[in-house]
UniProtKB/TrEMBL annotation:
MF terms (GO), sorted A to Z: acyltransferase activity, transferring groups other than amino-acyl groups
SUPFAM superfamilies given in the database record: Acyl-CoA N-acyltransferases (Nat)
Highest taxon listed in the record's lineage: Bacteria
Protein name as annotated: N-acetyltransferase domain-containing protein
Record Pfam families: Acetyltransf_3 (PF13302)
Residue span(s) of domain N-acetyltransferase: 6-180
Endpoints of the signal sequence: none
Length: 180
């Protein structure tokens, strides 16, 4: 990892096939933890369609000469539906300002898990978040309580637990980070 160079850039329309392969290649566990959809081509097409939309920024990672094979993606959402994170955080006594908050959802290809790739993506991601005028980061949809790797990763990045909630998928944890 330390001597591997990666390109880290915004998703482009040309990435449709690579994104479909990335989503199709995730293990069942990663898919369950991250977004769970089974229609990979449809999901990728939705992401391509949303390029440039006011509330979406999707970043992709690949070896500089292998744009056909994505190693990780970062999903940033700049809109916060009132009945999602704001309502949950309010129940913990935390007021989220939708003009200063971004929702964050990273996903690293299984082959790279535990090798520090997500950690390497964090500083440039926060730089983009700051450039877009946000200084508070919350997890998009929280993190599954049994996703121990992700919870440890977020804690190492400085996130703190704001509260817990339960969906049909089981218990989840909301975590928040105020950028310095
Ligand atoms: C969560 C995720 C983004 C982390 O990326 P990563 O590149 O594996 O993260 P890193 O290697 O930088 O850090 C992982 C940390 O978890 C630790 N870890 C690894 N396996 C673990 C496990 N089974 N249980 C607990 N901790 C674990 C590592 O030791 C490391 O912590 P440390 O640096 O303090 O030792 C990645 O694993 C992933 O994409 N998972 C599938 C999708 C997902 O869960 N996304 C998040 C949805 S909320």
């Amino acid at each position: 990892m330390a001597d591997t160079a990666f390109a880290f850039r915004a998703l482009q329309a040309e990435d449709a096939a690579a994104l479909t392969s990335f989503l199709a290649g995730l293990s069942d566990t990663s898919r369950r933890f991250w977004h769970g959809h089974a229609d990979h081509a449809g999901e990728a097409a939705g992401w391509i369609e949303a390029i440039g939309r006011y509330d979406k920024l999707r970043l992709v990672v690949h070896h500089p000469d292998r744009a056909d094979r994505l190693d990780a993606v970062v999903d940033l959402s700049f809109s916060l539906p009132a009945d999602a994170e704001p309502e949950r955080y309010a129940s913990y006594g935390i007021v989220l300002d939708p003009t200063r908050t971004v929702r964050f959802g990273p996903c690293v290809a299984d082959a790279w898990h535990g090798r520090g790739l997500a950690g390497a993506l964090v500083p440039p991601t926060w730089e983009a978040v700051r450039l877009l005028g946000r200084d508070r980061v919350v997890l998009f949809g929280g993190v599954h309580a049994d996703n121990h790797r992700a919870r440890r990763f977020y804690r190492r990045c400085g996130f703190t637990e704001a509260g817990t909630f339960t969906t049909s998928a089981g218990p989840s944890v909301d975590m928040v980070l105020d950028l310095p």
